[in-house]
Amino acid sequence: MPRPPFPRSWPASAVTAVVIAALITGLAWAQDLIAPIYLPAVYFEATHTPTITPSPTITPSPTLTQAVGTVDKVQGTLALCNPGKTTYGVGENVCVVETLFNPGDNGRVSFGLAGVAVIKFGGGDRFQTSWGEGHEFWDLCSGCTGPMNGSGGAWTDNVRGLDNNEGFEAPGTYQLTFAVCYTNFSACSSAPSNLWRTYTSIVITVQ
User: Fold this and answer.
1) Rounded Cα–Cα distance for residues 41 and 62 (Å)
2) Fold for the domain defined by 9-28+62-206
3) Sequence ranges of the domains in the chain
4) pTM of the entire predicted model
């Protein structure tokens, strides 16, 4: 299956910290992601010389696609490709299926980043990007399934260990959590936890 053209891993930084915070705090989520932009009015004082002064050209800031539906209605799940296998060997990847579903009674919603937070019990974490760079927003239409290409269906991914190399590099117990950032991609690395949603978590053992 072709891979999306963007970085596959964000190290244990603001992203994973925010996902962990979202898992712990369960904050009330904001529904309005982007504030409107207002440009100031431009006035010209009359002069004694009857000349016409053209108004300056104002280039508006680029607007970002904003969700019109409610993100809390979106349903997210993370499942193992092989549901009966929760124990893996060192050097193995973990195949997962990520699914976002937007009910038909909800309007279009937009997300900037979707992926899996990998947290090792006892210390260590990493966020593996599934969909993100390439668009500021991915749109999930009403009644549609994502996150592939926004509304292109569920996405199958191979989750790697903390060093981002092929296969989990060390024995231990790991928690995999499907997480989605509901603001524009550029802001996701520093977005507060109320702009993230965490969905299914799966615990696996590497030995």
Assistant:
1) 18
2) Immunoglobulin-like (2.60.40)
3) 9-28+62-206
4) 0.71
